[in-house]
Every structure is written in C-alpha cells, then in structure tokens.
Fold:
Amino acid sequence: MDEALSELGELVSLKLADKAEGYELAFGELTFTVRRDAIVDVMRTLRDDGQLRFVNFTDLCGVDYPERDERFEVVYHLLSPTQNQRIRVKVRTDESTPVASVTEVFPGADWFEREAYDLYGILFSGHHDLRRILTDYGFDGHPMRKDFPTTGYVEVRYDEEKKRVVYEKVKLAQEFRSFDYLSPWEGTDYVLPGDEKAESN
Structure:
C-alpha cells in the first residue's frame, strides 16, 4: 500500500512540477501542498491526466492555524477510480488573500467553498455565488475560527409577545453554587433536599 502511494506521489510530483511545494505520506494517505496561485491548474491536471484521473471531487474544508501568518489551509480530497487511490491537496492563505475557486473544474466544490467562506472567512475568487450557507443572514464573524468566542455574540429566541424570532446579546447568567467538596462516602453535613424524612442513624 505504502509502496503504491509512494509511486503515485512521485508520479504526481512529476506531473505537477513546480506547482507543488512538496508532499508527504502519513497514515496511509498522500498529501500534496501546492502553490495557491496554481490550484486550478493542479486540479485540472489531477482530473484530466490519463495516468491520474482523479475525477471524483470528494470534499473541501478549511483548517485554522491562528499562530501562522497564513493562518488558513484549504484542503481538497479527490478520488481516482482508475488508480483506486485518494489524494489530499492543501493550499495556504490568510484572512484577506483569496484562493481561486475550483468550481470550473469541479462544479461540486460550489457549496463546499461557500461553507469554508461562511465558517472560516476564507475568500474564493471567481466563485459565482460566494455567500453564507450555514449561518443566518447578518451573522457576525466566522464560527469555526479558533479565536471566535465559544458562546458567540448573539443568541436567538422566539418572543411570544412580539410573535417573532429576536436576537439578543449573549448573557451568561450562572447561579451561585456552594460546594463543600466532602467525600461522597462520608456524605454532606447538611440535609439534601428530599432527604428530610430519611432516618438518621
């Protein structure tokens, strides 16, 4: 298996030439990192080359590494029924530099690119309809970024008086709790609610 993937890695490297920055073989998977400005050509080569035939676009997703200058990776997964192999292709970008849309090569990438835009804020140039797909209209921020607050910025509820959905700032009301941290085997030094009638030894 690893030998076949290694041979495939060498073949793909040869076909992509200077468009690829390198590849790695880990956990039985072949991953190529390619230049951002070459992604459309790379996808076309992987799809159309007679020796490769990666004709099945499986999915695309974003990954966030906030400590990097180019904090995002766009990750593409392809399948070649001819090779009976899968390949992963990665490109790096930042918050303001768009990645070229691959919808002209794989139309199925359409909603995946919209999802990466919605959840991470990754921009795709040449996409015919780049708008949010999972969050609500007017949503503030991109919820899969690691610096996005886990509580969000607003909460949604149905207001019975107004007979509509309303948006409110998040309130984290937490009632005061007192813990005695006694051993559960020894029990508490006070009567728990509901135990008032229990016999005392």
